[in-house]
Design a protein that fits this description.
With 254 residues, the protein is α/β, with parallel strands linked by helices. It has a single domain, classed as Rossmann fold (3-Layer(aba) Sandwich), CATH 3.40.50. It contains eight helices and seven strands; from the N terminus they run E-H-E-H-E-H-E-H-E-H-E-H-H-H-E. The chain has helices spanning 19-30, 42-53, 69-83, 106-134, 155-175, 193-201, 205-212, 225-232, and strands spanning 10-14, 34-39, 59-63, 88-91, 137-142, 180-187, 243-246. The N and C termini lie far apart (41 Å). 48% of the residues are buried. The mean pLDDT is 97. The structure holds NADPH dihydro-nicotinamide-adenine-dinucleotide phosphate (NDP). NADPH dihydro-nicotinamide-adenine-dinucleotide phosphate binds at residues 14-15, 17-21, 39-41, 44, 64-67, 92-95, 115, 142, 144, 187, 189-190, 192-195.
């Protein structure tokens, strides 16, 4: 058995229709996993499913609004039923509302937390019984550099991402007995729709990132494929509760 072989495994990637989610989904598919793309935008998701199917695995779109607990539960149940099992859950769906902390309406704060944090918890809760019954599973939660650092324009986002790291540790300790490993990945600055918006909204961001990242470049979604495969397969069976930066050295440098 290869440490990185995911043949026969079934993965859900929330927000898997583009950006980091699709980068990870492609890694999982290339390693042999069937991949469920769970998101809101059907057209974009069907394009992603086409790309994943071209890698020779089963792939399917399932509608999800991660901010709605019922939608999370229905999506996980449908995935497990349609594919007959569930081995891997990547909680990647996320968003930000950028403004000074004093200007957040409670509804805006809540929307960010519902999407980035509560939705991940509910998907984990829905996936857990399937993984427990099967004798194990892998959960990957996507954090951010904002889990470590703060930013004047990202109070809600950084609160949600800091919390996802701590949620990861608690789930990891609770479910280790069931052979369910739960880990977090902290992407550095990755070139996606999310950060293209940020580059428009935050003056000088592009230059700051290039100067501040030891690797001297933005990450690409494909840079996240390797860590997804590692954390989804037998290679990481004794790794749980960990937080792994994938950031070109951003968090290592003072
Ligand atoms: P994108 O905007 O490209 O992707 C976000 C994804 O989340 C989309 O697929 C979107 O799909 C999905 N999504 C958003 N809201 C919901 C919702 N309510 N229900 C279901 N799906 C939803 O951004 P990235 O790829 O950059 O971001 C992916 C993750 O990585 C996020 O958690 C983000 O915080 C994190 N991250 C990104 C970094 C970066 O530099 N890009 C750095 C650190 C962390 P749809 O609209 O179809 O629902």
């Amino acid at each position: 058995m290869s440490l990185f072989d995911l043949s026969g495994r079934v993965a859900i990637v929330t927000g898997g229709n583009g950006g980091i989610g699709l980068g990870m989904a492609k890694g999982l598919a290339a390693a042999g996993a069937a991949v469920v793309v769970a998101a809101r935008n059907r057209e974009k998701s069907e394009r992603a499913v086409g790309e994943l199917s071209a890698l020779g695995v089963l792939s399917s779109f399932m509608p999800l609004d991660v901010a709605d607990p019922q939608s999370c539960r229905a999506m996980v149940a449908e995935a497990a039923e349609r594919f007959g099992r569930l081995d891997i859950l990547v909680n990647n769906a996320g968003m930000s509302i950028r403004k000074p902390p004093e200007s957040y309406a409670v509804e805006e704060w809540q929307r960010v937390l519902d999407t980035n944090l509560t939705g991940a918890l509910v998907c984990c809760q829905a996936a857990y019984p399937h993984m427990q019954r099967q004798g194990g599973g892998k959960i990957i939660n996507i954090g951010s550099m904002m889990a470590i650092f703060g930013a004047a324009y990202a109070a809600a986002y950084s609160a949600s991402k800091g919390a996802i790291v701590q949620l990861t540790k608690s789930l990891a300790t609770a479910w280790a007995k069931d052979n369910v490993q739960v880990n977090a990945v902290l992407p550095g600055w990755i070139d996606t729709e999310l950060t293209r918006d940020a580059r428009h909204q935050v003056p000088g961001l592009n230059e700051r990132i290039l100067n501040r990242t030891p690797a001297g470049r933005w990450g690409m979604p494909d840079d996240l494929a390797g860590v997804a495969v590692f954390l989804s397969g037998p290679a990481s069976d004794f790794v749980t509760g960990a937080t792994i930066p994938v950031d070109g050295g951003f968090s290592a440098e003072f």
